Structure prediction request, 217 residues.
Amino acid sequence: MTVVHENLLCGPEFELINQIYPVSRETMNRLNILVDAVRAWQKKTNLVAHSTIGSIWARHVADSIQCAELMPDARCWVDVGSGGGFPGLVIAAVMAEHENAKVHLVESNHKKSAFLMQAARKMDVPVIVHADRIESAAKQFSNVDIVTARAFAPLKKLLELVEPIMTGRTVALFHKGRDYRPEIEECNGLWTFDLIDHKSSIAEDSVVLEISNLQKI
Prediction:
């Protein structure tokens, strides 16, 4: 594993992450490997918006680690539409320090799934990459604690996709921007669920929606 530069451990990136979720030197090392991998692959594959590369630690890493802060005891995660590894590989960086933890990354784009496999190997994290659509991959999952998605689909569509995974105990954590309330309203008459909207620690107009007890009407 690539060793993180000592300056990073006392720099603004380390401070930013630790304000949200305190991490070890080893976890910070894994996160640094992820950031380096995204920057390298971004030159040939569009993993994240080009305009956000300069603020990748805040816009993507810190934003993603909020999931671990919300559900620190979860051990089995499924990340839908993992793309550049946010939040999936960030969660995996944290889960690497816990026994029996597993993070499933579902990504149908083969270039992006190849990136996820390579980055996971370099980070040495407990990840299984499913190069498939969630509609097909869902039947492989059981006893899932948390399902996540970030910038993947409108809420109504997301609920349709993850409903097969969400047993009575499974909780969903979905990152949403300022226009999330109309998305919730679109689900009226279609779904019932318990909802907590967690205000983002990174962007004041964003939230992480915590959804449980999902039932189709």
